[in-house]
Design brief:
There is one protein chain. About 75% of the residues lie in helices and about 0% in strands. The protein has 6 helices and no strands. It has helices at about 5-20, 25-30, 35-50, 55-60, 65-95, 110-130. Helix 1 (about 5-20) packs antiparallel against helix 3 (about 35-50), helix 3 (about 35-50) crosses helix 5 (about 65-95) and helix 5 runs antiparallel to helix 6 (about 110-130). The radius of gyration is 16 Å and the shape is globular.
Length: about 130
């Protein structure tokens, strides 16, 4: 079973990689420019690798090789998710569909939340396959 420490490390590393290391150039252009999306993914993968390095301290089955595999597979899945969700959020922003007065709310912020849900599911699925 995955521990609270492992969950915390993975989520913190993901947040840092996906938000703090994604500048406006990447974020605003990744929906229609593969160079910008690719730059985001390469940056994300490297930051995720270094950010999850602390997993070695709490899970003795974690090796550098497996950690690299975790980051690379996560980066590939991250690309797949962002390729589609960035197009949806770009369209929603362009059409001022940030939220909704009615429920359910399928606006921009709900799409961002869904994007993060998919990323989290992928991260924990990959982690459980590689390290458990």
């Amino acid at each position: 079973m995955i521990s609270v420490y492992e969950i915390s490390i993975i989520l913190a590393a993901h947040f840092i990689a996906d938000f703090l290391f994604q500048n406006n150039w990447m974020a605003s252009g990744k929906s229609n420019n593969l160079l910008k999306l690719g730059t985001h993914i390469v940056t994300y993968t490297f930051v995720l690798f270094f950010g999850t390095f602390f997993l070695i301290l709490v899970n003795h089955s974690v090796t550098l090789k497996l950690l690299a595999e975790f980051a690379i597979i996560s980066g590939i899945l991250h690309f797949s998710i962002d390729f589609f969700t960035s197009k949806v959020t770009s369209w929603q922003r362009k059409n001022n569909m940030m939220g909704s007065d009615s429920l359910p709310n399928f606006g921009f912020f709900s799409t961002i939340g869904f994007d993060q849900l998919l990323h989290s599911i992928c991260l924990f699925w990959i982690y459980s396959l590689l390290f458990k």
